[in-house]
């Protein structure tokens, strides 16, 4: 059994880290906020943050692919397909990161469904 001092210390340490995280989160740039929202499966918030990031970095094709994935996860396949069409050249290029190959596969599925 732990002493009361140890319990109080752990509770205080946990509270400190929670407060620090809450204070730091608004200062984060949009990209990590969008990635965090996607991890929590909060795709509506992720779309907002990806849009903010793309406004600042319009040539970031990986962010555009993640935006399309958010719309696809929300069930808006038409918007996702339009976004995939906008970066179709990147989807078929060798410059695409290995971890984003599933976007190309999803684009092909949407295309075969008529989107």
Tags for this model:
115 residues; mainly alpha; Serine Threonine Protein Phosphatase 5, Tetratricopeptide repeat; 73% helix
Which CATH architecture is right?
A: Alpha Horseshoe
**Ends: how far apart?**
62 Å
Class by SSE composition: mainly alpha
CATH class: Mainly Alpha
CATH topology: Serine Threonine Protein Phosphatase 5, Tetratricopeptide repeat
Outline type: elongated
Instruction: Specify the helix fraction band.
Output: over 70%
The count of domains is: 1
Instruction: Give the radius of gyration.
Output: 19 Å
Number of strands: 0
Q: Major β-sheet, in short?
A: none
What portion of the residues fall into strands of 2 or more residues?
Answer: under 5%
- Please state the average pLDDT score: 85
Helix and strand element order: HHHHHHH
* Count of discrete alpha- or pi-helical segments spanning 4 or more residues: 7
Kindly report the name of the CATH homologous superfamily.
Tetratricopeptide repeat domain
Provide structural commentary.
By secondary structure, the chain is an all-alpha fold. The chain has a single domain (30-112), classed as Serine Threonine Protein Phosphatase 5, Tetratricopeptide repeat (Alpha Horseshoe). Helix content is 73%, strand content 0%. It contains 7 helices and no strands. It has helices spanning 4-24, 30-39, 43-56, 61-73, 77-86, 88-91, 101-112.
SSE order and pairing:
Blueprint: H1 4-24, H2 30-39, H3 43-56, H4 61-73, H5 77-86, H6 88-91, H7 101-112
